[in-house]
Amino acid sequence: MRLLIIEDEEIIRESLAARLRAAGFGVETAKDGEEGLYFAREYPVDLAVIDLGLPRLSGLDIIRSLREEGYAYPILILTARDRWQDKVDGLGAGADDYVAKPFHVEEIIARVNALLRRAGGWASSELTAGPISLDTAGQELKVGGRPVELTGHEYKLLEHLMLRAGQVVSKTELTERLYDQDFERDSNVIEVFIGRLRRKLDPDNQLKPIETLRGRGYRFALAKAGGESSRAGE
Amino acid sequence: MSDHPTAPPPAQSLRLRVLVWGTLLLLVFFGVIVAVLDSAFRSAALEAERDLLDSRMIMLLAAAEAGPGHDLVLPVDLPEPLFGTPGSGLYGAIVRRDGSVVWRSDSTIGVAIPWGVMPATGERSFRRIGLDDGTPLLALSMGIDWEFADGRVRSYIVHVATSLDSLNAQIASFRRQLLVWFGIVAALLLASLALLLRWLLRPLARIETEILEIEGGERAALSAGYPTELAGVARNLNQLIDIERARTERHRRTLQDLAHSLKTPLAAMRALLDGDGDRRDMEGQVSRMEEIVRYQLAKPLANVGATLGAEPVPVEPELRRLADGLHKVYRDRDIQCEVHVEPGLRFLGDRGDLLEIAGNLMENAHKWARRRVRVTAAGAADVPTPRRGLLLTVEDDGPGIPEGGETGLLERGRRLDETKPGQGIGLSVVVELAGAYRGTVELGRSPLGGAAATVRLPPG
């Protein structure tokens, strides 16, 4: 998943970017409003984290422009002034959630995950499809109620495919997801990982959870079980 | 207060406006009256002069008698001595129809009177004529037929004229008196108007003096006993002063609180640094400082001064904006948020404060709710909107507040349950803001099953 962080405060921007990269996201950063809007339009972005008080172009203006131009990816706003006026303005302009400064990075990661999950149509942090159940909070996989061990790469790959369940995900996108910005990797590696995942998810080769679409990519094919809210709270 | 950078030039003084208007009104009013009186007096005087002239002509005719040769003669001593006094201003003459003079009064000696007209028998002619030297005369001429004892009849014209000099003098004198008296009356009126103004404006001068005294610290508030029309202004000013004073006090207290409350974690951090402390302990102190800053920041923003002169904020759109925003944030949880607002309800205060109070309560409700959140807003008192205050209730169907936990939650900055981060701050901010509006916050149980938070802000 590719994130865009638009934040003028360098320390916050870089430490947030580092922590999100460590959490497995591809991260682009912009240091002011104009640059941010440019990146937000030009780069493939799955979610944007936007500070409201930016030089050159305010966060609210960026959000309004993006929404007007039809960009629908989730937007998380950072507000320096912990006032509802700012939050309501941001949400009204088209943001999806807010975090007030100062924040814990864990809080941001949790909100980002929740927003991405929601954008993928999942209602809970436990992505369940058929017998497959991926707990994105604990990063654990269960198949038919039985825990299955995954490597870090395998987990990222499965999470990405499940978050995009029903959609075709290209090899390039998966490579980017796995290796952050290093596009030069051999895409055969992806095939190897997919093969391993298939064996772990579906040892008997009956479920066929991951489809291969030749020349286009892969698709997680099982129907989501989390369409309706399954629990009362978080 | 006194240093407005670009103060507009002061508007014309109220006193000047009233006096200018009063003077103009008096001038117009008296002008019309003087003109009317003058013209009435003039025509009455002229009328009297005509009557006098008429009676003198009759006197002349009565004095005339038939003389020798079928002609008229008048006695030397007429009952009106003015006819006999040269230059008296009263003239008389009787002429025959052919223009030849039968008789002329002694007063016409040395004066050529241009009688002019010769009216037909039985006709009278009143007119103004002028002597060569410009003296204006009022003249009356009448044609008569005189029947002599033997039955012969001859036609004559009788002329009488009187100088208008005395009439004009009378009129001029009347006009002078009129102007003098009206001038005196107008001056008295304007003077009393000025006195009235002084009297009327005295309370304003008193307000000014008292405000100066307040600025100088010699006085705490404007005194009572202002006239009804100014009592409201005085009350609002006192309110403004109170609010301003409270705000200053709050800012001072906030700064002190902030400094004091930051000193403890700072001291702890220094100790941790010196003793090569645990990173987790350090983290705890940083979090504590964050909370302190966040809580203290919310306080001075409480903008209660807005109850004066602020535009009332329609409540419903703001609550709906909050509900829409929160619906987005808590979309996963599928929470139904109902908003019931009394139609047309407006909040007399700062929009940001309203959002802060409602936003914190509604966010808490969304955090705890299972399925439902209900927001109800109405006026707090039964008086015309917008000075009705606000009664805001936010309920949820969550687990509710444990028995006895209410008071703890309402204490400043106290947290009941650390698992919902920020809740302590949110409620503390609401309590602080409600207090700034002299309002109250109550926590209780909702018929929905969970907690109910009620904020009551009294009418401003």
How are the strands of the largest sheet of chain A arranged?
A: 2-1-3-4-5
Outline of chain A = elongated
How much is the radius of gyration of chain A in Å? 18 Å
Biggest sheet architecture of chain A: 5 strands, parallel
Feature tags:
heterodimer; A: 234 residues; alpha/beta; 4-stranded antiparallel β-sheet; 21% strand; B: 460 residues; alpha+beta; 5-stranded antiparallel β-sheet; 14 strands; rod-shaped
Outline of the structure:
The complex is a heterodimer of chains A (234) and B (460). With 234 residues, chain A is of the alpha/beta class. Chain A is 40% helix and 21% strand.
Secondary-structure blueprint of this entry?
The complex is a heterodimer of chains A (234) and B (460).
Chain A: E1 2-6, H1 10-22, E2 26-30, H2 33-42, E3 47-51, H3 59-68, E4 75-79, H4 84-93, E5 97-100, H5 105-119, E6 126-129, E7 132-135, E8 140-143, E9 146-148, H6 152-163, E10 168-169, H7 171-179, H8 188-201, E11 210-213, E12 217-220
Parallel strand pairs in A: 1-2, 1-3, 3-4, 4-5
Antiparallel strand pairs in A: 6-7, 7-8, 8-9, 10-12, 11-12
Chain B: H1 14-63, E1 65-67, E2 71-73, E3 90-96, E4 101-104, E5 124-130, E6 136-147, E7 153-163, H2 165-215, H3 228-274, H4 279-298, E8 313-314, H5 315-329, E9 336-341, E10 346-347, H6 351-368, E11 372-378, E12 390-396, H7 405-410, H8 423-436, E13 440-445, E14 451-457
Parallel strand pairs in B: 9-11
Antiparallel strand pairs in B: 1-2, 3-4, 3-7, 5-6, 6-7, 8-10, 11-12, 12-14, 13-14
Description of the structure:
The complex is a heterodimer of chains A (about 230) and B (about 450). With about 230 residues, chain A is α/β, with parallel strands linked by helices. Chain A has eight helices and twelve strands. Chain A has helices at about 10-20, 35-40, 60-70, 85-95, 105-120, 150-165, 170-180, 190-200; strands at about 1-5, 25-30, 45-50, 75-80, 95-100, 125-130, 130-135, 140-145, 145-150, 170, 210-215, 215-220. In chain A, about 40% of the residues are buried. Chain B has about 450 residues and is of the alpha+beta class. Chain B is about 50% helix and about 20% strand. Chain B has helices at about 15-65, 165-215, 230-275, 280-300, 315-330, 350-370, 405-410, 425-435; strands at about 65, 70-75, 90-95, 100-105, 125-130, 135-145, 155-165, 315, 335-340, 345, 370-380, 390-395, 440-445, 450-455. In chain B, strands 4-3-7-6-5 form a five-stranded antiparallel β-sheet.
